Amino acid sequence: MNYTRYQLSKKEYAENIVVFLVLDGMISYLFYRSWIVFLLCLPCLNPFLKMRRENLCQKRREKLEEQFLMAMQTVITSLTAGYSVETAFTDALKELPLVYRADDMIVLEFRSIVSQLNMNQNLEELLQSLAVRSGIEDIRNFAEVFAVSKRSGGNLIAIIRNTIQSIMQKNETRKEIQVVLSAKKMEQNMMSLIPCLILLYVQTVSPGFLDVMYHNPAGIAIMTAALGVYLGAVVWGKKIVEIEV
Questions:
Q1: Exposed, middle or buried by CB within 10 Å (0-12, 13-18, 19+), for 75?
Q2: Among 97, 119, 166, 237, which has the minimal tally of Cβ within 10 Å of its Cβ?
């Protein structure tokens, strides 16, 4: 599986179309009160679905990395017990179903690795293949370190353990940052809704108060500028609370 691409399921596709139509309808009504604007915004569906695929793809990669680190802990345990690295991967495959479902990503990947090892495939190449398909920097770094250490005949157990511990420390730091930022992200999401809620409130309480802003060139220009500033602020706010480690 290529983890750098994400294919929406029929359910996900339908759900995201509904979300887009709701957003399109909300913007068209609150800022323009125009069906024409609603129809003109429909071509934005493809960029919206692309953004959703990228978000879901990133979440899947994060989940795969977490599962990979857990699996490598099992491999390290077998190596410490004196088994060869190939046998350690085979033993890890036996342990993984106790933690994950049979169709989880890491179980499928380890099953494929063990199957190809039984056909005398090179483990270094198999890990490199996983690294390329996953698009995860930490897995790529591990595969490179593993290949070099195995060829050079170094202390494989210590090298693998140190590499995995380094990756896990990085992930722990990332999680701690996400915990700290979670409240800020919630605040940012709430603040993003406030302008739309204010418009909805005014139009509900005083239906004719904003009529001057609709269906005339000056009003359309002002509302378009307001919408542009609003969308820019939303994008800017999301970038502020996104920190990569």
A1: buried
A2: 119
